[in-house]
Amino acid sequence: MSTIETRLYINNTYTAAKAGDTFPIFNPFDGSHVADVCSAGEDDVEAAVIAAERAQQKWAALAGTERAAIMRRFAELLRQHARMIAELDAQVMGRPAQGNTEGAGSAAIFDYYAGLGEHVHGTSSLLTPGFINVSIKQPFGVTVGIIPWNFPLGSFAFKAAPAVAAGNAIIIKTSEKAPLSLAYISEYIEKAGFPPGIIQILHGAGKTGQLLSEHMRVRKISFTGSTQTGRAILIASAKSNMKNVTLELGGKSPTIIFDDADIDKAASSCAFSIGFNSGQVCIASSRLYVHEQIHDRFVQALGQAMIQFRHGDPLDAGTTMGPQADKAQSTTVAKYMGVGKEDGVVAHGGQSTKENFFEPTIFTDIPHSSRLNREEVFGPVVVVHRFVDEDEAIKLCNESEYGLYAAVFTRNVDRALRVAKRLESGSVGVNCNSPMTANDLPFGGWKMSGMGRENGPNGLAPWLEDKSMYIKV
Ligand code: NAD
């Protein structure tokens, strides 16, 4: 069993759940019992909201530079503890610790918003005779972030960093599948200098999230997770106090590979995209549209590129693909493998090699209407289709309820830009998949992949309300 602290982090203090509830965490690699984690109920949620209310206005009254200094100290602590963060996530959700850069990545997000929070500007207008009109930006007050398990630290940073830079207090609800890295870093919130109540960490399952989504004194909620839960949160918000809601949801991301593309580079990039984190990535390229002239060569190259993944213990340095995060994930992946075998042809992989492990798998000859092609698998499973011309490829890509990420591979720059513009997607990679290299560009989804944006300057705006003031002179 892990010895790390697993209590709730309320008012800068590790606190047991008032009702005494806990839930167990098991290692998906070997089934061992890793920890029992406190589960927040109604009284704990209320305690966190009260602490946030007490703290937030003083926090908002600080100079931006003072908030930024605390955020930068916190970023430094995340960097220092990056290895432990990676090891904890390896044990609870199977992501290989080697190469897991979430600690450093999350630190960069805190640094970025520390800088941005120092320069929050409104607007002014002299257009109305007899008036000087100004608009100022103000924080919401008590806010909530509900996060998934596949990138615990990153999802936390995408919400907490802009929220506190804008002067809000935030309560983070971790995922019941992967709470440990956030439980571990909770103590650095106080060490960095955040006053009690500004960043609080609650653990628990959907019920805890629901209590927060329905809470009448929470003004803003930012959610990352499945489209199904996003819908429930939107409804809970509508039925309670009409919270401002940001949603980062699921995807079924398409990639087009034209006949002039570098086949090996495209195959290697697509293999990494669907194999990274065992395919449990919202922007994984899971639908590939390949020009008919190169279809067979591409499928072969993709299979070759998939051989690079090495299954094993996520704590071992040589492991590049861990298990699915838990039994429920494995059941889902197995179900969709079954759909693929009924509806089409296995061109590569297709087997579970050990409990919770799946070979990276390519399906071909899948009807476009198949569930495998329409629904998010969240596993290392890709479908490859043929296309004849550009219009057909774009039409097929856009025939999806999702619109989170898309990519296009071609050496023709005009075509790349033309196609990128027509794809219905929040982000498009040109000759690359899923890079997410930039902290300064908006990230989010079209259609059922989300509402609103995170990352970059657009990621700060959703944590601020506008207030216009009409000054008679
Ligand atoms: P999930 O929707 O099952 O759970 C996400 C969070 O919501 C968890 O903390 C969970 O406890 C909580 N929750 C569950 N029911 C709730 C309810 N009724 N009210 C409030 N909270 C509730 O998603 P998951 O399995 O943790 O994550 C995988 C999903 O997240 C995938 O669909 C993936 O595409 C998506 N995702 C999206 C992005 C993005 O940026 N768009 C990033 C990562 C993951």
UniProtKB/TrEMBL annotation:
Claim: Cell cycle is one of the keywords in the record: no
Top-level taxon: Eukaryota
One GO molecular-function entry: oxidoreductase activity, acting on the aldehyde or oxo group of donors, NAD or NADP as acceptor
Amino-acid biosynthesis is among the record's keywords: no
Active site positions, chain numbering: E248
Domain Aldehyde dehydrogenase stretches: 17-468
Pfam families in the cross-refs: Aldedh (PF00171)
Key words of the record: Oxidoreductase
InterPro entries named in the record: Ald_DH/histidinol_DH, Ald_DH_C, Ald_DH_CS_GLU, Ald_DH_N, Aldehyde_DH_dom
Family that this chain belongs to: Belongs to the aldehyde dehydrogenase family.
UniProt protein name: Aldehyde dehydrogenase domain-containing protein
Organism: Kwoniella bestiolae CBS 10118
